[in-house]
Amino acid sequence: MTMRAAAAAGAVASRRVGLGSAVTALVLTLAAAGCVSPAARHSAASEHLGAQTAVRELRPAAVTIPRGRGSMPRPVTLPRVAGGLPRPVTLRTSGGDYGISRRGTIRWLGTARRRAHPAVSHPAGFVWVSWPVGAWATMRRGHLVIVRNRTVLWRSTHSYRVKDAAHMNEVLTGRPGIATEVGPSGPWYMASWHGPEHLVRVAGWPVMWTRSGNLLATLQRRGSRSYGFAVFSPAGVRLATLATRLNVSAWDASYEDLASGTFWFVTGSGDLVRTDGAAAKVVANIRALGLGSVSSVTILSGGLIQLLPGNWRQGQLILYPGGQLFARIPAPKGQPPGFGQLLADPSAQMVAYILYDSSGVASTVFVVRPGSAPVAVYHTSRGGGVCGLPPLAWRGSWLLYTPPLSHAVLIDTAPNHRIIGLPSTLPGSNGRTIRVQAVSWR
């Protein structure tokens, strides 16, 4: 799957067209998506509206754990998490994986086994594509080729004056076929997996294959500052025009939900629309919700909808899948805040998110329930890492928070907000210390 470098006339910045269904929204700022320098991150967690005082951090105590046959080369003293855990977790280190049981004992699980994949040499300029898994695109003598392992799945009939596949502006693959655009603002083509490509004589570019098997595309003429959306059949026939005369901001607020195969966008009249490529449905109206514009639409776990307003001082809104209001998350006072990951629990009953202070080091975790103000459930003065990997993970009513610059904790989102600290290092053989690289629920 490629990323569009720029829209026509240089009016639109690059935007992702899909990174997989396992990933939930990572909102780093209300003003714009992406990583920013610590000096540019401004949050005021202590001034957050409706926030309660965050609880203190706890650390585990160390005890001696007997070592059996088949474990580490030498017996070591491993820490024990006092009080036990609600669910087991796994600690990943360079020396192998360790498991923490519900009783709080830690044992070595061994070295993780990696699946053996066939040795495939990928040429310079190749790109991974979205379907099937493990497939990639490359150029061979001017022809676009889709390959999986060493098997050629599809080869273009036409040859293109493109250096490599990375310079094709889009290479979208799905069960119905292939859609590709040749260079920025160039012509675009569609093809089935068993046939040649054909030119789509409409100005624009492909966006995503939808659940219905039809293709969602952006409409935009060269030099125009107006955008639209339309649906095309696998044969390249335009089936419906969904929106026209959208400005750059409205176009950029659209969202490709690859997990469900649906596309979301906001019309000029403020309607939030969902389509599966066969039918379109108005889910809500942002004007009725009190918003003048929306800078981002994201679908969370359980189908909850996250709306980031164009004006960051309006905070953000969470809607139920049907469009009803779940909760309003107010913006902190002061300068534009730095927001970290926002994650809904699997049952769609709670939403957790992170706020960073102006230095980007201290962080506070908040939990929001339907119709309630956000509640601070944890604070660390050295968590940081606004540009790190998503650090939140739900398991029931418990949150696993893994700040890149501090030790991981388990947070009970119940009213008492019990905090269980997890070790950031473990003792290894020969007196060495092993750093914990990642933590996950088991």
What does this structure look like?
By secondary structure, this protein is mostly beta strands. It has one domain. The protein has one helix and 35 strands. The strands form nine sheets. It has a five-stranded antiparallel sheet with strand order 5-4-3-35-34, with no helix packed on it. It has a four-stranded antiparallel sheet with strand order 6-7-8-9, with no helix packed on it. Strands 10-11-12-13 form a four-stranded antiparallel sheet, with no helix packed on it. β22 and β23 form a beta hairpin. It is globular, with a radius of gyration of 24 Å. The N terminus is likely disordered.
List the helices and strands and how they pair.
Blueprint: E1 61-62, E2 79-80, E3 89-93, E4 96-100, E5 106-110, E6 127-128, E7 135-140, E8 143-148, E9 151-155, E10 170-173, E11 178-181, E12 188-191, E13 198-200, E14 204-209, E15 215-219, E16 227-232, E17 238-246, H1 248-252, E18 255-257, E19 262-266, E20 271-275, E21 280-285, E22 294-299, E23 305-309, E24 316-319, E25 325-329, E26 338-344, E27 351-356, E28 363-368, E29 375-380, E30 392-395, E31 398-401, E32 409-412, E33 419-421, E34 425-427, E35 433-441
Antiparallel strand pairs: 1-2, 3-4, 3-35, 4-5, 6-7, 7-8, 8-9, 10-11, 11-12, 12-13, 14-15, 15-16, 16-17, 18-19, 19-20, 20-21, 22-23, 23-24, 24-25, 26-27, 27-28, 28-29, 30-31, 31-32, 32-33, 34-35
